[in-house]
Amino acid sequence: MSVYTEVSRDDLIAFLSHYAVGHLVDYEGISDGIENTNYFVTTDQGQFVLTLFEQHGFDVMDYYLDVMTFFYQSGIPSAHPEPDKTGQYLKTLSGRPAALVGRLTGRSLSDVATVNQCRAIGDILAKMHLAANNFEQRKLTDRGADWRQKTAEKVLPYLDKADAQLMTEELTFQAQYKTFNLPMGLTHSDLFRDNALFDGDTLTGIIDFYYACDEYWLYDLAVTVNDWCIDESGLIDDIRYQALISAYTAQRTLSSAEVDHWNIVLRAAAMRFWLSRLQDKYFPREGELTQIKDPNAFRQILCQHQQRPLLVYAA
Predict the structure, then answer these.
(1) Which of the chain's ends, N or C, has fewer CB atoms near its CB within 10 Å?
(2) CA 281 to CA 275: how far, in whole Å?
(3) How many CB atoms lie within 10 A of CB 307?
(4) Using CA of residue 175, residue 254, residue 210, residue 131, what is the dihedral sign?
(5) Last residue of a domain, one of 40, 71, 102
(6) Residue 293, pLDDT score
(7) What domain count does the chain have?
(8) Residues 120 and 149 in one domain
(9) Segments of the chain scoring below 50 in pLDDT
Protein backbone atom coordinates (compact mmCIF):
# COMPACT_ATOMS: atom_id res chain seq x y z
CA MET A 1 0.00 0.00 0.00
CA SER A 2 1.95 2.93 -1.34
CA VAL A 3 1.02 6.30 -2.81
CA TYR A 4 1.47 6.38 -6.57
CA THR A 5 -1.45 8.70 -7.34
CA GLU A 6 -1.76 11.92 -5.37
CA VAL A 7 -5.28 12.96 -4.44
CA SER A 8 -6.02 16.60 -3.76
CA ARG A 9 -8.21 17.64 -0.85
CA ASP A 10 -10.80 19.19 -3.18
CA ASP A 11 -11.00 16.01 -5.28
CA LEU A 12 -11.40 13.89 -2.17
CA ILE A 13 -14.17 16.14 -0.82
CA ALA A 14 -16.00 15.79 -4.13
CA PHE A 15 -15.51 12.01 -4.06
CA LEU A 16 -16.84 11.69 -0.50
CA SER A 17 -19.94 13.70 -1.40
CA HIS A 18 -21.22 10.58 -3.18
CA TYR A 19 -21.18 8.65 0.12
CA ALA A 20 -23.19 9.00 3.32
CA VAL A 21 -20.04 9.15 5.46
CA GLY A 22 -19.99 12.76 6.58
CA HIS A 23 -17.52 15.55 5.87
CA LEU A 24 -13.77 15.22 5.44
CA VAL A 25 -11.67 16.03 8.51
CA ASP A 26 -8.24 14.76 7.48
CA TYR A 27 -6.42 12.24 5.26
CA GLU A 28 -2.91 10.88 4.89
CA GLY A 29 -1.06 8.52 2.56
CA ILE A 30 -0.15 5.01 3.70
CA SER A 31 3.37 3.85 2.87
CA ASP A 32 3.08 0.14 3.83
CA GLY A 33 2.92 -2.36 0.98
CA ILE A 34 3.69 -1.91 -2.70
CA GLU A 35 0.70 -2.39 -5.02
CA ASN A 36 -2.02 0.27 -4.77
CA THR A 37 -2.44 3.85 -3.60
CA ASN A 38 -3.94 4.00 -0.12
CA TYR A 39 -5.02 6.78 2.23
CA PHE A 40 -6.40 6.84 5.73
CA VAL A 41 -9.48 9.06 5.60
CA THR A 42 -11.15 10.58 8.65
CA THR A 43 -14.59 12.18 8.45
CA ASP A 44 -16.83 13.57 11.15
CA GLN A 45 -18.66 10.21 11.10
CA GLY A 46 -15.84 7.67 11.09
CA GLN A 47 -12.53 6.38 9.78
CA PHE A 48 -11.97 4.72 6.42
CA VAL A 49 -9.32 3.43 4.04
CA LEU A 50 -9.44 4.83 0.52
CA THR A 51 -7.78 2.65 -2.15
CA LEU A 52 -7.00 3.67 -5.71
CA PHE A 53 -6.26 0.60 -7.82
CA GLU A 54 -3.16 1.11 -9.93
CA GLN A 55 -3.07 -2.07 -11.99
CA HIS A 56 -6.66 -3.29 -12.30
CA GLY A 57 -9.75 -2.08 -14.13
CA PHE A 58 -13.35 -1.96 -13.02
CA ASP A 59 -14.17 -5.50 -14.17
CA VAL A 60 -11.71 -7.31 -11.91
CA MET A 61 -12.16 -4.83 -9.04
CA ASP A 62 -15.81 -5.80 -8.81
CA TYR A 63 -14.60 -9.34 -8.11
CA TYR A 64 -12.25 -8.25 -5.32
CA LEU A 65 -14.93 -6.18 -3.62
CA ASP A 66 -17.34 -9.12 -3.89
CA VAL A 67 -14.69 -11.27 -2.18
CA MET A 68 -14.43 -8.78 0.68
CA THR A 69 -18.19 -8.66 1.04
CA PHE A 70 -18.42 -12.46 0.97
CA PHE A 71 -15.89 -12.98 3.76
CA TYR A 72 -17.46 -10.22 5.86
CA GLN A 73 -20.87 -11.87 5.49
CA SER A 74 -19.31 -15.27 6.28
CA GLY A 75 -18.22 -14.10 9.72
CA ILE A 76 -14.56 -13.53 8.89
CA PRO A 77 -13.31 -10.36 10.62
CA SER A 78 -12.70 -8.20 7.55
CA ALA A 79 -13.56 -4.72 6.36
CA HIS A 80 -16.72 -4.19 4.36
CA PRO A 81 -16.63 -1.90 1.30
CA GLU A 82 -18.67 1.27 1.82
CA PRO A 83 -21.44 1.66 -0.80
CA ASP A 84 -22.08 5.05 -2.32
CA LYS A 85 -25.54 6.61 -2.24
CA THR A 86 -26.60 4.49 -5.24
CA GLY A 87 -25.37 1.23 -3.69
CA GLN A 88 -22.19 0.95 -5.76
CA TYR A 89 -18.83 0.00 -4.22
CA LEU A 90 -16.55 1.23 -6.98
CA LYS A 91 -16.07 4.76 -8.35
CA THR A 92 -13.44 6.77 -10.22
CA LEU A 93 -11.00 9.12 -8.46
CA SER A 94 -8.00 10.79 -10.09
CA GLY A 95 -8.42 8.56 -13.11
CA ARG A 96 -8.28 5.33 -11.11
CA PRO A 97 -10.91 2.85 -9.90
CA ALA A 98 -11.38 3.64 -6.22
CA ALA A 99 -13.16 2.16 -3.22
CA LEU A 100 -13.82 3.32 0.31
CA VAL A 101 -13.61 0.69 3.05
CA GLY A 102 -14.36 0.93 6.75
CA ARG A 103 -11.18 1.12 8.82
CA LEU A 104 -10.88 -1.73 11.30
CA THR A 105 -9.49 -1.48 14.81
CA GLY A 106 -6.08 -2.90 15.62
CA ARG A 107 -2.69 -2.63 13.98
CA SER A 108 -0.70 -4.71 11.52
CA LEU A 109 2.46 -6.28 12.87
CA SER A 110 5.73 -4.40 12.48
CA ASP A 111 7.74 -7.09 14.23
CA VAL A 112 7.82 -10.90 14.11
CA ALA A 113 4.57 -12.59 15.12
CA THR A 114 4.06 -14.11 18.55
CA VAL A 115 3.15 -17.77 18.91
CA ASN A 116 -0.42 -16.81 19.81
CA GLN A 117 -0.68 -14.55 16.76
CA CYS A 118 0.51 -17.43 14.57
CA ARG A 119 -2.13 -19.63 16.17
CA ALA A 120 -4.82 -17.02 15.52
CA ILE A 121 -3.90 -16.57 11.85
CA GLY A 122 -3.79 -20.33 11.24
CA ASP A 123 -7.27 -20.68 12.74
CA ILE A 124 -8.81 -17.88 10.68
CA LEU A 125 -7.15 -19.00 7.44
CA ALA A 126 -8.68 -22.46 7.78
CA LYS A 127 -12.09 -20.88 8.42
CA MET A 128 -11.65 -18.74 5.30
CA HIS A 129 -10.91 -21.85 3.22
CA LEU A 130 -13.92 -23.67 4.62
CA ALA A 131 -16.15 -20.68 3.87
CA ALA A 132 -14.69 -20.44 0.36
CA ASN A 133 -16.62 -23.57 -0.64
CA ASN A 134 -19.68 -21.32 -0.85
CA PHE A 135 -18.12 -18.63 -3.06
CA GLU A 136 -19.37 -19.18 -6.62
CA GLN A 137 -17.26 -16.75 -8.65
CA ARG A 138 -14.05 -17.96 -10.27
CA LYS A 139 -10.81 -16.13 -11.03
CA LEU A 140 -7.62 -17.95 -11.95
CA THR A 141 -4.42 -16.71 -10.35
CA ASP A 142 -2.27 -14.35 -12.41
CA ARG A 143 0.82 -15.06 -10.25
CA GLY A 144 1.04 -18.82 -10.81
CA ALA A 145 3.61 -21.06 -12.49
CA ASP A 146 3.48 -19.27 -15.86
CA TRP A 147 3.99 -15.88 -14.20
CA ARG A 148 6.91 -17.24 -12.17
CA GLN A 149 8.60 -18.46 -15.35
CA LYS A 150 8.07 -15.22 -17.28
CA THR A 151 9.16 -13.02 -14.39
CA ALA A 152 12.26 -15.12 -13.84
CA GLU A 153 13.25 -14.61 -17.47
CA LYS A 154 12.84 -10.87 -16.92
CA VAL A 155 15.01 -10.59 -13.79
CA LEU A 156 17.62 -13.29 -14.46
CA PRO A 157 19.96 -10.92 -16.38
CA TYR A 158 20.24 -8.77 -13.23
CA LEU A 159 21.28 -11.60 -10.90
CA ASP A 160 24.76 -12.79 -10.06
CA LYS A 161 25.81 -16.25 -11.19
CA ALA A 162 24.90 -18.01 -7.93
CA ASP A 163 21.40 -16.51 -7.70
CA ALA A 164 20.74 -17.12 -11.39
CA GLN A 165 21.68 -20.76 -10.98
CA LEU A 166 19.54 -21.07 -7.84
CA MET A 167 16.52 -19.60 -9.63
CA THR A 168 16.93 -21.67 -12.78
CA GLU A 169 17.31 -24.94 -10.89
CA GLU A 170 14.36 -24.15 -8.63
CA LEU A 171 12.06 -23.41 -11.57
CA THR A 172 12.99 -26.80 -13.01
CA PHE A 173 12.17 -28.42 -9.67
CA GLN A 174 8.78 -26.66 -9.60
CA ALA A 175 7.88 -27.49 -13.21
CA GLN A 176 5.04 -29.86 -12.26
CA TYR A 177 3.41 -27.45 -9.79
CA LYS A 178 0.35 -26.57 -11.86
CA THR A 179 -0.46 -30.23 -12.57
CA PHE A 180 -1.05 -31.22 -8.94
CA ASN A 181 -4.54 -32.41 -8.05
CA LEU A 182 -4.90 -30.52 -4.78
CA PRO A 183 -7.98 -29.01 -3.11
CA MET A 184 -8.43 -25.47 -4.35
CA GLY A 185 -10.78 -22.52 -4.43
CA LEU A 186 -10.90 -18.92 -3.26
CA THR A 187 -7.67 -17.83 -1.52
CA HIS A 188 -6.34 -14.60 -0.06
CA SER A 189 -2.89 -15.36 -1.57
CA ASP A 190 -1.20 -12.42 0.18
CA LEU A 191 -1.88 -12.99 3.88
CA PHE A 192 1.26 -11.34 5.20
CA ARG A 193 1.61 -9.82 8.65
CA ASP A 194 0.80 -6.36 7.25
CA ASN A 195 -2.53 -7.68 5.95
CA ALA A 196 -3.90 -8.68 9.34
CA LEU A 197 -4.76 -6.44 12.27
CA PHE A 198 -4.28 -7.28 15.92
CA ASP A 199 -4.99 -5.80 19.32
CA GLY A 200 -2.29 -7.56 21.29
CA ASP A 201 -2.72 -11.24 20.43
CA THR A 202 -6.37 -10.78 19.43
CA LEU A 203 -7.04 -10.80 15.69
CA THR A 204 -9.32 -7.90 14.73
CA GLY A 205 -9.32 -8.06 10.95
CA ILE A 206 -8.03 -9.37 7.63
CA ILE A 207 -7.38 -6.74 4.94
CA ASP A 208 -6.09 -6.29 1.38
CA PHE A 209 -7.84 -8.99 -0.66
CA TYR A 210 -6.48 -7.68 -3.97
CA TYR A 211 -4.57 -10.86 -4.83
CA ALA A 212 -7.59 -13.06 -4.09
CA CYS A 213 -8.00 -15.80 -6.68
CA ASP A 214 -8.55 -19.51 -7.20
CA GLU A 215 -5.42 -21.37 -6.10
CA TYR A 216 -4.45 -24.39 -4.07
CA TRP A 217 -5.52 -23.79 -0.47
CA LEU A 218 -2.17 -25.33 0.41
CA TYR A 219 -0.45 -22.47 -1.43
CA ASP A 220 -2.40 -19.93 0.65
CA LEU A 221 -1.23 -21.76 3.76
CA ALA A 222 2.36 -21.77 2.46
CA VAL A 223 2.35 -18.02 1.79
CA THR A 224 1.14 -17.47 5.34
CA VAL A 225 3.68 -19.82 6.95
CA ASN A 226 6.56 -18.23 5.03
CA ASP A 227 5.81 -14.81 6.48
CA TRP A 228 4.23 -15.41 9.89
CA CYS A 229 6.46 -18.17 11.23
CA ILE A 230 9.83 -16.47 10.90
CA ASP A 231 11.99 -15.53 13.88
CA GLU A 232 14.25 -12.49 14.28
CA SER A 233 16.78 -14.02 11.88
CA GLY A 234 14.18 -14.29 9.12
CA LEU A 235 14.04 -18.10 9.14
CA ILE A 236 11.07 -20.35 9.86
CA ASP A 237 10.84 -21.03 13.60
CA ASP A 238 9.53 -24.47 14.61
CA ILE A 239 7.44 -23.27 17.56
CA ARG A 240 5.62 -20.61 15.56
CA TYR A 241 5.22 -23.05 12.67
CA GLN A 242 3.70 -25.79 14.80
CA ALA A 243 1.31 -23.30 16.42
CA LEU A 244 0.04 -22.08 13.04
CA ILE A 245 -0.19 -25.54 11.45
CA SER A 246 -1.91 -27.07 14.48
CA ALA A 247 -4.52 -24.31 14.55
CA TYR A 248 -5.13 -24.64 10.82
CA THR A 249 -5.46 -28.43 10.77
CA ALA A 250 -7.75 -28.36 13.81
CA GLN A 251 -10.27 -26.65 11.49
CA ARG A 252 -9.41 -28.18 8.10
CA THR A 253 -7.77 -31.58 7.61
CA LEU A 254 -5.03 -31.76 4.99
CA SER A 255 -5.30 -34.51 2.41
CA SER A 256 -2.51 -37.04 1.88
CA ALA A 257 -1.74 -35.35 -1.47
CA GLU A 258 -1.36 -31.99 0.28
CA VAL A 259 1.03 -33.53 2.79
CA ASP A 260 3.06 -35.11 -0.02
CA HIS A 261 3.38 -31.83 -1.93
CA TRP A 262 3.89 -29.51 1.05
CA ASN A 263 7.58 -28.84 0.43
CA ILE A 264 7.26 -27.95 -3.24
CA VAL A 265 4.29 -25.65 -2.54
CA LEU A 266 6.23 -23.90 0.24
CA ARG A 267 9.07 -23.40 -2.23
CA ALA A 268 6.71 -22.12 -4.93
CA ALA A 269 5.29 -19.58 -2.49
CA ALA A 270 8.79 -18.43 -1.52
CA MET A 271 9.80 -18.21 -5.17
CA ARG A 272 6.72 -16.13 -6.03
CA PHE A 273 7.64 -13.40 -3.54
CA TRP A 274 11.36 -13.56 -4.25
CA LEU A 275 10.49 -12.90 -7.89
CA SER A 276 7.98 -10.13 -7.24
CA ARG A 277 10.40 -8.29 -4.97
CA LEU A 278 13.17 -8.63 -7.53
CA GLN A 279 10.81 -7.23 -10.14
CA ASP A 280 9.96 -4.29 -7.89
CA LYS A 281 13.66 -3.71 -7.25
CA TYR A 282 14.82 -3.74 -10.87
CA PHE A 283 11.65 -2.35 -12.48
CA PRO A 284 10.23 0.06 -9.88
CA ARG A 285 7.15 2.18 -10.39
CA GLU A 286 7.23 5.85 -9.47
CA GLY A 287 5.28 6.95 -6.44
CA GLU A 288 5.17 9.69 -3.82
CA LEU A 289 5.54 7.12 -1.02
CA THR A 290 6.77 3.67 -2.01
CA GLN A 291 8.28 0.75 -0.18
CA ILE A 292 10.55 -1.75 -1.93
CA LYS A 293 10.90 -4.83 0.23
CA ASP A 294 14.04 -6.93 0.47
CA PRO A 295 14.05 -9.79 -2.08
CA ASN A 296 16.69 -11.71 -0.12
CA ALA A 297 14.21 -12.39 2.69
CA PHE A 298 12.43 -14.90 0.46
CA ARG A 299 15.61 -16.18 -1.14
CA GLN A 300 16.67 -17.14 2.38
CA ILE A 301 13.37 -18.89 3.10
CA LEU A 302 13.51 -20.72 -0.24
CA CYS A 303 16.98 -22.03 0.63
CA GLN A 304 15.74 -23.12 4.06
CA HIS A 305 12.95 -25.18 2.45
CA GLN A 306 15.46 -26.73 0.07
CA GLN A 307 17.80 -27.74 2.87
CA ARG A 308 15.35 -28.68 5.64
CA PRO A 309 11.82 -29.59 4.52
CA LEU A 310 9.14 -28.80 7.08
CA LEU A 311 7.00 -31.68 8.25
CA VAL A 312 3.22 -31.67 8.26
CA TYR A 313 0.89 -34.58 8.88
CA ALA A 314 -2.52 -35.57 7.61
CA ALA A 315 -5.04 -36.04 10.39
Answers:
(1) C
(2) 10
(3) 7
(4) positive
(5) 102
(6) 87
(7) 2
(8) yes
(9) 1, 288-289
